[in-house]
Amino acid sequence: MPARDAAAQEPRTLTLAGEPLDYTLVRRRGRRGIGLKVDSSGLTVSAPLSIPLARVEKMVLESESWVLGKLAVWRTRRVPEQRWDDGASLPYLGQALTLRLAAARRAHAAVDGAELRVAVPAPGDEAVRRAVVAWYRRSALVHLAQRAFFFSRLAVLAPPRVMISSANSRWGSCNSRREVRLAWRLVKARPALVDYVVCHELAHLRHMNHSREFWAEVARLCPDYRVLRDELEATDHLYRSF
């Protein structure tokens, strides 16, 4: 998932199997080849600026059965609704934290054993959500930076700069400045899935592509990456409730 230059996004519509299909076209300077991705947001098509739209859409049409199959699978997956009342359950590193609420002059949140204690100055779901997300972002930066440091030492790589992202379309990205961005929502998943994404991005420090050499590097750092990649794709929707 190497990062490219700033991307231009454009909503478009294409006819597949006789029905209109909305998709997002992402143009990236420096990208090689056309990529298709289906997730909870629908179909995203990534392409270089230099490739004509007709060629891009021709590839989508040639991949019609794959696209429609993936969309059918995603329609069966429901993003769970998140509650924000006292006693609600919050996913964190594959386990559940129990939300405990209190009143305070300033909003803050801290974990205490298996509980996330959140204090807000005024009641309301939005105030609680903001405090919880702020805690997740802080915790994600610490955990993800630690895992990146661990695996970069294992790979005999200089540790990259780790930053937190709010991206919904990708779990991570890496650029030539040795900056790794990881979605904070990733820490809702169990640790092995988190480690797979970290290893994936670190492998880009050696191979800024998805070549055979790149996947060999991923396998060296994370031998079970194929199983974990499939599991992350299958459970992706569970981590998008907030």
Structural class, from helix and strand content? alpha/beta
Content of β-strand: 25-35%
Specify the CATH homologous superfamily of the largest domain: Metalloproteases ("zincins"), catalytic domain
Number of domains: 2
End-to-end distance: 23 Å
What string, H for helix and E for strand, traces the elements in order? EEEEHHEEEEHEEEHHH
Query: If helices are DSSP runs of H or I spanning 4 or more residues, what is the number of helices?
Result: 6
Spatial order of strands in the largest sheet: 1-2-4-3
Low-pLDDT runs: none
Going by CATH, the architecture of the largest domain would be 2-Layer Sandwich
Largest sheet, in brief, is:
4 strands, mixed
Overall pLDDT confidence: 92
What top-tier CATH class of the largest domain fits best?
Alpha Beta
Named CATH topology of the largest domain: Zincin-like
Shape, please?
globular
Description:
The mean pLDDT is 92. This protein has 242 residues and is α/β, with parallel strands linked by helices. Helix content is 36%, strand content 29%. The protein starts with 6 loop residues before the first strand and ends in a 7-residue tail after the last helix. The protein has a 4-stranded mixed sheet with strand order 1-2-4-3, covered by helices on one side. A 4-stranded mixed sheet has the order 5-6-8-7. A 3-stranded mixed sheet has the order 9-11-10, covered by helices on one side. It is globular. A hairpin with a 2-residue loop joins strand 5 and strand 6. Helix 3 crosses helix 4, helix 4 crosses helix 5 and helix 4 packs across helix 6. The protein has 2 domains: 69 residues, no CATH class; 151 residues, Metalloproteases ("zincins"), catalytic domain (Zincin-like), CATH 3.30.2010.10. It has 6 helices and 11 strands.
